[in-house]
Write a structure and sequence with these properties.
Blueprint (H helix, E strand, L loop, with lengths): L9 H8 L7 H14 L6 H6 L13 H7 L4 H11 L16 H7 L6 H6 L5 H4 L4 H7 L4 H13 L6
């Protein structure tokens, strides 16, 4: 394993690197803190949460520009984060059961605060969510980049429930 991962517990590393393990919303923030702390960057937890990145799996594929937006100003810390995040899988947000409504789906993601915004923007059906883009999410009112990432990653998983 790389130097950045040397202090990460085997259980956490295995959980975060396994694409078919679904991480519950309740455990996601604790995993994020543990992951950041184990790579020596636990002091940035508040910055990630403020930007809507409430789980380490949301950091899969994160870019340098996105890390700058979060507030990670140190280039070496950005390098460590991007290298460590390359082991993560976004598809941990695929749901194991079929949601019955947009509201249920957002609730399962821990994002029920957006239900009224989605409804107000005319996104009433789950099929509508499979065609979302970052630009559309901004128009709907999803301002936190981490929340947009979570919605887009989970939206891909909706395909298997919509036929």
């Amino acid at each position: 394993r790389s130097g950045e991962w040397s202090d990460v517990t085997e259980q956490t590393a295995r959980l975060l690197a396994t694409p078919d393990v679904v991480v519950s919303y309740e455990d996601a923030q604790a995993l994020l803190y543990e992951w950041l702390n184990n790579i020596g960057l636990g002091h940035h937890l508040g910055s990630f949460l403020d930007a809507g990145y409430d789980s380490p799996v949301l950091l899969a594929g994160i870019t340098e520009a996105e890390l700058k937006h979060v507030g990670i100003t140190d280039a070496e810390q950005r390098r460590i984060l991007m290298k460590s995040a390359s082991c993560l899988h976004e598809d941990n947000y695929l749901l194991q059961t079929s949601p019955e409504s947009v509201e249920d789906w957002l609730g399962a993601l821990g994002l029920s605060t957006y239900s009224a915004l989605f409804g107000g923007a005319g996104y009433d059906y789950l099929a509508d969510l499979t065609r979302m883009s970052p630009t559309l999410l901004i128009k709907v009112g999803v301002t936190k980049p981490g929340h947009r990432t979570k919605i887009l990653a989970a939206g891909v998983g909706l395909q298997k429930w919509i036929s």
